[in-house]
Amino acid sequence: MPLPPATPADPLTVDRDITHAHFRAGDSVIVLKGVAGGELWGDAVRVVAPSWHTPTGEDGWRVRDATGGAQSYVTAHPRYLVHLSRQCPDCLIHVRAMEDLLLPKHADSDELIDFGWYTTTTLNQLVHVADARRGR
C-alpha cells in the first residue's frame, strides 16, 4: 500500500540505535505502523527467540503474534520493536518522537491509517521499507 500523500516517511525507526540486547524472550512489544483516533497503533507481538534478520544482516528477534494468521511468527530487527510498558526510557523516547512527528499531521482523522512502512518477505522477515530500499 503506498503512503498517503500527507504522510511523512518514517525517518526515526531506521536510524534508531537499539541493540539486540535491549529485548529479551518473553517481552511484549509493538511494531508501530500508523495512527488511529489520535494515537499511534501497531501490531502487538511477543519476543520469542534470537534470529538472524537477513534483510539488515544483523541480529534480530523471532516474534509471535498471538492472534495467529498467515504469519504468526516473523523475524524483526530490534529497532522495529517498542516495549509495550511505558517503564522503558529508550522506548518511551522513541514513542514520544513518533507521536510528535505523526499525531499533529493526523489530528483531525479518526480513521485507521497504515503508513505502509513494513512488508514481510517470503522468509517471514519483517522489513522496514527504508531498509529494503537500502538493499540490505
List keywords for this structure.
alpha+beta; 136 residues; two-stranded antiparallel sheet; 2 helices; 6-stranded antiparallel beta sheet; disordered N terminus
Explain what you see:
The protein is an alpha+beta fold and 136 residues long. Helices cover 14% and strands 33% of the residues. The protein is built from two helices and eight strands, in the order βββββαβββα. The protein has helices at 89-102, 129-133; strands spanning 28-36, 39-53, 58-64, 73-76, 82-83, 113-114, 118-120, 126-128. The strands form two sheets. Strands 1, 2, 3, 4, 5 and 6 form a six-stranded antiparallel β-sheet that branches. A hairpin with a 4-residue loop joins strand 2 and strand 3 (58-64). The longest helix has 14 residues, at 89-102. The two termini are 21 Å apart.
Number of helices: 2
The CA-CA distance between the termini, in Å, is: 21 Å
**DSSP strand count:** 8
The string of secondary-structure elements, in order, is EEEEEHEEEH
Strand content: 25-35%
Radius of gyration (CA) equals 14 Å
Mean pLDDT level: 87
Low-confidence stretches: 1-7
- Give the class from helix and strand content and strand pairing: alpha+beta
Helix content: 10-25%
* Inertia-based shape: globular
